[in-house]
Here is the input.
Amino acid sequence: MLQQACEGKQNDPLWQQAGITEQDAERYREMLEYVEQCLQLPRNSSVGKTSIDYKRFEHTKRVTSWAIRLYLACDEKERARVNLDSLMVATIFHDSGYNSCQDMADHGNEGARIAAEYLESVGYERDQIVEICDLIAHHSRKDLLKSGDISGSLVILMEADWLDDMGAMGIVMDTWIQAASNPEVSFASIKGHIERYTLRQQYKNRDVLRSKAALRFWDEKTAITQAFFDQLCRDLEDPL
Ligand SMILES: [Fe+2]
Ligand SMILES: [Fe+2]
Here is the structure.
């Protein structure tokens, strides 16, 4: 397990470990409520994972937890380059534009527009709104993780976004998608789905990650996916 350089104790909620005050946590809860409302709008665009009742808002909460975990794993120098408030707000709003954008590829820009409007209404400074909206607008540009000169906050947001849906989450999702989309679902078809999606992505996408912490979390997820897959293969082996 990752060693956590925490301000709080390890059993405290993640936000307390990161030194977020109760007052700020309350502001973030209000933002989450606002984003939940945005994501309840009927969807304009056709978005993947529609064969299952994939809740984008639940994903948002999980990505926020991942962002805090990755922040906690940063050393002091790395943390000094991250504005935790901007990171939290950008993560909470990163997919807020999913349901109101016309084209899924544009959901980052739409999320930035939604966030700007909200943040202006609650009195954020112009410079910080620009920083937050820039993070939201670019969060899907995973290619930047490999090549670009990008901020520590954008690295954390993109890696957090990518860590969700992998490992145990990926196995559950592959199973869920098979059950929802294949009338002839079977153990073997689920095994095939895991092999084609989560297991493949665990190996294919590893190189894109940049931070040591994200790589270690990723490798934990690869290990559990591979072990699960190997055991399933053994369980399903024909006797003769
Ligand atoms: Fe996104
Ligand atoms: Fe996301």
Q: What stands out?
A: Residues 59, 63, 94-95, 161 surround fe (ii) ion (ligand 2) (CB under 6 Å). The chain has 13 helices and no strands. Confidence is low (pLDDT under 50) at residues 1-6.
